[in-house]
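Notebook entry, structure prediction.
Reason for the run: the old model in the group folder had no record of what sequence produced it. Starting over properly, with the input documented here first.
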Amino acid sequence: MIMPTTTASEILAKWLAEALDKAGKSQSDLARDIDLSSQKINRMVQGAREISGVELIKISDALDVPIPSLSGNSTPEVAKQPSHDAAQPPAQNGTVSNFSEEAYDKAFTAALEIEKREFGGNMPLQDFINAVTIGLKRQKN
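New structure, fully documented this time:
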């Protein structure tokens, strides 16, 4: 017996529906939060509209959920980083950096995966920086 293949659109549609439910937000709430129409969000939930890499990052941030694995496997939770490490030197702006090298590596690797998958290796620099920043924020919280 051949098992049906789950497409990326199906995985993302299921993830989005579950994330909205978990966050207690409506499709309209999310649409306002990420500046898209309710119709576009509805089509994403139905699997009738693909979610771009940038939209995926914005949704993940707005609903406070990790970006799913498109392999069909469950997405591992991102490990929480300690809020302060006295051994770390102050950051450039005088504040203490709370991110380990591992946290930077995770955020950068995730952004690279999105760049390759969604942009064919040509993700605009600002979008890439935003992806890394969101990845770091997700690990900090």
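Summary: The two ends are 44 Å apart (CA to CA).
The old model has been moved to the deprecated folder.
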